[in-house]
Amino acid sequence: MLMDLNSYRLKRLIGDVSLRLLILILVIFFLGDLLGYFVGQLTHNAAMENQDALNKMFIHVPTYLQFAVVGFIIPIMEEIIFRGLLSKVLFGKYFKMGLVISSLLFMAGHSASTPQTIVIYGIMSAGLAITYYKTERIEYSMGVHILNNSISVLLSLFV
């Protein structure tokens, strides 16, 4: 009986559209990062400006604080600014246009100027915008952004 109940809960959770969307967006982010890596290799641009700037800013900051700021605080602030304020508040009934413009500004804010960074941040900003648009809940785009940044910080610190 207990097994059936747990199985039902898992099926219900996996069947949830929001969860499937989040998993899809994370897979897209991973593929975007992978594609960005290969584009960087082809264009001989392996170092990203955004990562270099973060490395300089956090050179004397403890690892746990880097993780907290880049993994949690910055993604929450960026989602509030780019998806919340720009898309929903500023553009109101032109929400879709707001998502496109906020995605372009998100890319610009991350110094997306090389083929590698345009691919990476273009896919990321589109994925976050789609997440917010489809779910109509900023918490979901925040969660995806936090997860993406946290994984990136951990990889950059320990790999």
From TrEMBL:
GO molecular function terms noted in the UniProt entry: endopeptidase activity
Residue stretches spanning the membrane: 21-43, 63-82, 94-112, 118-135
Location of the CAAX prenyl protease 2/Lysostaphin resistance protein A-like domain: 63-150
Record-linked InterPro entries: CAAX_protease, Rce1/LyrA-like_dom
GO biological process: CAAX-box protein maturation
UniProt keyword NADP, yes or no: no
Pfam families: Rce1-like (PF02517)
Keywords of this entry: Membrane, Transmembrane, Transmembrane helix
Statement: the UniProt record of this protein carries the keyword Ubl conjugation: no
Family, similarity comment: Belongs to the UPF0177 family.
Protein name: CAAX prenyl protease 2/Lysostaphin resistance protein A-like domain-containing protein
